Amino acid sequence: MKTGFSAMGDTGTQLTFENGLTISITWSTFAMCSNKIKANKGNLPENERTESATAEVAVIADISDTWYDFSERDSDGKIKLKKATSGGFVEGFMTADMVAELIQVVSQFPTLWSNTKGN
């Protein structure tokens, strides 16, 4: 995929960075987000499915289809981005502020094109 933005219907978006990583942000009624809870309770009108208080997020390397784990923090409190050990990794119920912090980390991750070892 080229760098930039792509839509996932009306329930998500993806951002692909120069370093080869893509961050996927989704808030469908099937994702781990506020909309899933509302839909399960039967109180999510069709016209409200295009927004959500929280989202499900994944980080994927386009060149290798490698998923990244971002569930840990270093001693300074910064998100640690590392290859997921068991296939896909998603984090649910992330707020906009949490996603913004992750975007900063992902966008500054070393370029994957020249990093054959990965991190």
Describe the structure.
- The protein contains two helices and seven strands; from the N terminus they run E-E-E-H-E-E-E-E-H.
- The chain has helices at 34-40, 96-107, and strands at 4-7, 12-16, 21-26, 55-61, 66-73, 79-83, 91-94.
- The protein has 119 residues and is α+β, with helices and mostly antiparallel strands.
- The protein has one domain.
- Strands 1, 2, 3, 4, 5, 6 and 7 form a seven-stranded antiparallel sheet that branches.
- Helices cover 16% and strands 33% of the residues.
What would you say about this model in short?
The protein has 2 helices and 7 strands, in the order E-E-E-H-E-E-E-E-H.
Q: How many distinct folded domains?
A: 1
Arithmetic mean of pLDDT: 82
Distance between the termini: 21 Å
Cα shape: globular
Q: Give a count of the beta strands, DSSP E runs of length 2 or more.
A: 7
Q: H/E order of the elements? A: EEEHEEEEH
Major beta-sheet overview: 7 strands, antiparallel
- Low-confidence residue ranges: 115-119
Which structural class matches the secondary elements? Answer: alpha+beta
Tally of helical runs? 2
Using only C-alpha atoms, the radius of gyration works out to 15 Å
Helix content: 10-25%
How much β-strand is present in the residues?
Answer: 25-35%
Features:
119 residues; 2 helices; 16% helix; disordered C terminus
Summarize the SSE layout with pairings.
Layout (H helix, E strand, L loop, with lengths): L3 E4 L4 E5 L4 E6 L7 H7 L14 E7 L4 E8 L5 E5 L7 E4 L1 H12 L12
Antiparallel strand pairs: 1-2, 2-3, 3-4, 4-5, 4-7, 5-6
